[in-house]
What we know:
By secondary structure, this protein is of the alpha/beta class. It has helices at 2-6, 31-37, 52-56, 82-91, 107-111, 133-141, 160-172, 190-195, 219-225, 243-252, 273-284, 308-314, 333-342, 360-366, 385-394, 411-420; strands at residues 14-18, 43-47, 70-74, 97-101, 122-125, 151-157, 179-184, 207-212, 234-238, 259-265, 297-303, 322-326, 349-353, 374-378, 400-404, 423-425.
Amino acid sequence: MALALSNINNTLTRIRLDFTTCQQIPVIVTIGDLLYVCTNVTDLQYKSLSSFDDAIGDLSYTEQHQALLDIQITVRPRSVSASAITPLLQRCKKLHRIILDGCAPDVLDVVDNSTYCSNLQIFGYNCKHSLPAALVKSSKAAQPIASGLRAFYTENVNEKEEGENVLRVLRRNAATLETVHVKELRNDSWNALAQTYLNLNLENLERLVYESADRDTLQPVLIQAISASTKLSHLAVQSPGSLLPLAQTLSALQQPVEVLKLSDCYAPPADYMNLVNLFNVYAALSPSPATTRAFREVSFLDCESLTDATLTALAKIDSLKNITLGYLDGLSTHGILAFFMSLRDGVESIKLIGMGAITDEHIIALGSLKGLKRIHMEELHEVTDQGLNDMVDKAPVLCNLTFIDCSSTSQAAIIYAKRRIRIVQTE
């Protein structure tokens, strides 16, 4: 393969190699081979079931690579160590984006090191998914505020050493980070560790996604870290603890967030009054030269005690465009109907999943929204053909309907919808 690559080495700029289906076959081309032969490659993705040492091969004959900006490597778990990856970083000093899956905790400190990675803007540690293309493009095109990471992604942070290294990465890049995505597993030893980082300040953060298997571990650190941000626009939290510090922090920001997503929330009903207060603050905001953002999107998934009062406050926000409600057992049939009937005509998209309280009456009410363009209905088992047909007839600008696993509707209703709506998806 290396010989074949040598025939196109002057023109090849992107390489995608996936050896994960070749369990019994030894590595036939290494990352070292690719970098030696393909001197103009800018984007390299390499996946293998082998160890990192086998995947990287021999780098001793590889000189400084002047073109490589983006590298994504997936190898055997915990086989990427600081000592193993250092030779690669020494030869690829122009990297803007590094995504690694299979790392030991000591990799965090060596990658986040200006000695080797002074141009690095995006770092994914033990990430199994590709980063959004839009983020990659903007990060390559725009200059960072200063030298440092602009985006940091990590999954399955569990050990204390790993957690401490993650927090050090956040603190070292606090002035430049715009996107942070942390997925944490439960670790009782983190509580003491978190106390030492409560002064973390992510002043330029725009997007925070925090997923946790448990609450009240790193979450207080991250909520405190956004309290001084003037740019936060997207906040997604899984398994939040008390909603009070979250709501108070968002209420005190100079501008509202544009997107708020909560999932797996087990707060008691009384705690949702904090969200009622937050939404009342957002509803009272009026556009001004100092306000460049507006609250546009909300998502509640598996928030079992979400109250009708929360929806009542949410419906008063004029800027709201996109709504997702899923598996919310605490809502009443009457409360949901009142919410739908109170929504502003500016709402463009609604996604409903596993909402057993929703009936034909609710769906028909949505058809009255003058601006509704997209609706996603999934596992709504009380909605019948009649409700779907009436909603389709009423909705003036509806152009996209997704309809999945709604057991009380028939194929006839789907056919009827397809005659009137441009895009109808059923799976």
